[in-house]
Write a structure and sequence with these properties.
Layout lengths: L2 E2 L10 H7 L1 E4 L5 H22 L5 E2 L2 H4 L1 H7 L2 H9 L5 E11 L7 E4 L4 E2 L10 E6 L2 E5 L2 H5 L2 E6 L11 E2 L11 H10 L2 E3 L7 E4 L5 E3 L8 E10 L13
Parallel strand pairs: 1-11
Antiparallel strand pairs: 2-12, 3-4, 4-14, 5-13, 6-8, 7-8, 9-12, 9-14, 10-11, 10-13
The structure holds 2-oxoglutaric acid.
């Protein structure tokens, strides 16, 4: 993988750097105790999901409904004011997923953009395509403008140095719209990736359209991340977010 650690992510002054690069590193968004309380609630959900799936599971979805601590964190004044600094519109949390890489599920994620959103029901709408159902919830690929208005916060619940399956991103790739396979090949061949090394309690803020990937952990223990997507409340044509109605 074409990746380097330690490039400076701008001067960490916030929105203009976020607009340019499509990601921003924010230290100490949650304390170790807060992370541990989230872990204590999320691990049983993850283990139950793994047992029901009888396979290697990367994560658990729909946590704004099933994990009260996730919903409280996602809606807290602190996190809302943080998100507000990086977004033009009033944003609400619309989807939360818990990811873990561990010795039983030490997965690789190929380069991709996050193109799907979770909605309450399928209403066929121009510009919205590729409907699917994930864990019982309708998902769709909206037009790029909707994804461009969204912000994802990834809270790290474990230390995540580069070798612990840290996320890699291509700075600026979120500004290229939805990318095809050839575009992705071009990015991977020509641009150095940034390795998002994070400590427990740190966050990574990113645009869903940024090209990202992650390798397996080299010495898998845990690499737990709470991924929360924020978006403006309103969608066209009567469409409603699954987790905000
Ligand atoms: O947590 C990761 O390493 C990547 C997860 C991800 O990007 C995804 O599942 O879309």
């Amino acid at each position: 993988m074409n990746a380097v650690a330690g490039i400076r992510n701008g001067d960490a002054t916030g929105t203009s750097q976020f607009d340019r690069d499509g990601f921003h590193l924010i230290p100490a968004v949650a304390g170790a105790d807060d992370c541990d309380r989230l872990i204590a609630e999320l691990m049983p959900l993850y283990e139950r999901h793994s047992a029901a799936t009888a396979g290697k599971v990367g994560g658990v979805r729909n946590l704004l409904r099933t994990s009260p601590r996730t919903a409280t964190f996602a809606n807290s004044a602190k996190i809302n004011s943080l998100i507000r600094q990086f977004a033009d519109d009033l944003m609400v949390p619309v989807r939360a997923i818990f990811f873990d890489k561990n010795p039983d599920a030490n997965w690789r994620v190929p380069w991709h953009q996050d193109l799907a959103i979770a909605l309450s029901e399928q209403i066929d709408t121009p510009g919205f395509g590729g409907w699917s159902v994930k864990d019982g919830v309708p998902h769709v690929h909206p037009p790029a403008e909707i994804l461009e208005g969204m912000v994802t916060l990834r809270l790290h619940l474990d230390d995540c140095p580069g070798h612990n399956g840290a996320l890699r991103v291509f700075p600026g790739s979120h500004r290229a719209g939805k990318l095809g396979a050839d575009d992705i090949t071009r990015w991977t061949a020509t641009v150095p990736a940034f390795i998002c090394e994070r400590a427990k309690g740190d966050a990574l803020l990113m645009r869903p359209l940024i090209l990202h990937a992650s390798p397996p952990a080299e010495l898998p223990g845990h690499r737990r991340v709470l991924h929360i997507e924020y978006a403006p409340k309103e969608l066209p044509n009567g469409l409603k977010w699954f987790d905000f109605q």
